[in-house]
Amino acid sequence: MGEERLQKIISQAGIASRRAAEKMILEGRVAVDGQCVRELGTKVNPAEHVIVVDGKVITQQEHHVYLLLNKPKGCLSTAKDDRGRRTVLDLLPEVRERVYPVGRLDNNTEGLLLITNDGELMNGLLHPRFEVEKTYHARVTGRLTQAKLAKLRQGVMLEDGMTAPAKVRELPEVEQGERSKGIFRVEITIHEGRNRQVRRMFAAVGCDVKALKRVRFAQLTLIGVPRGHHRVLTDEEINMLYRLAGLTK
Hints:
By secondary structure, the chain is an alpha+beta fold. It is built from 6 helices and 17 strands. The chain has helices at residues 6-12, 18-26, 119-126, 146-154, 197-204, 235-244; strands at residues 4-5, 30-32, 35-36, 43-44, 51-53, 56-58, 66-71, 100-101, 109-116, 134-141, 157-158, 161-162, 167-171, 183-190, 208-217, 220-221, 230-232. The strands form 4 sheets. Strands 7, 8, 9, 10, 13, 14, 15, 16 and 17 form a 9-stranded mixed β-sheet that branches. Strands 3-2-5-6 form a 4-stranded antiparallel β-sheet, with no helix packed on it. Helix 1 (6-12) packs across helix 2 (18-26). The longest helix has 10 residues, at 235-244.
């Protein structure tokens, strides 16, 4: 292994995303061979130097883990919770590596969530520039008109600004008479990652989301993965995500 930028080594070790690693360096939390390093351009060969982050030695690149989880409701999309609430990592007791969810699904949202310790890939998939698509199925109440669907497709104004255009289509009823009761099922695809964005978008057009499930992330789906279970991504899927994130593997 040759020399690499320090922030890349930290990211590849699963410690943090590259952007977070840069912040760690600037804050003086990283040392090489006992010397604090604050220069972002520093290159190091991890096989020849001792790298310490927050007092912990990075001895070698950690084995990368790539999982697709079907997150249930009532489970936090975080690595740990100070209040002791259930997190997605509680569903992965056999995983020994330090892994993190790629983005978040709120507590009451279920569905597809990627889990990895590849900080570089995580950072790329979440970067707005690459516009990685996420598709959700929503069960909403309120009068959902064609005009409202068109508004969602064009983008709606939220308190943190206008959303990007979305792909939206109404889904068939699951139970007969749902529409007459003011219940609609909608598929919506977005590429942004704002907090509770889909719920807020529907609220902006006068609809209330009663159930929300992410069914697709990029080209990945939940097929074959029951709620609360997970599977390992294939090499082909990992390579696809790398291409979407503007990276080479």
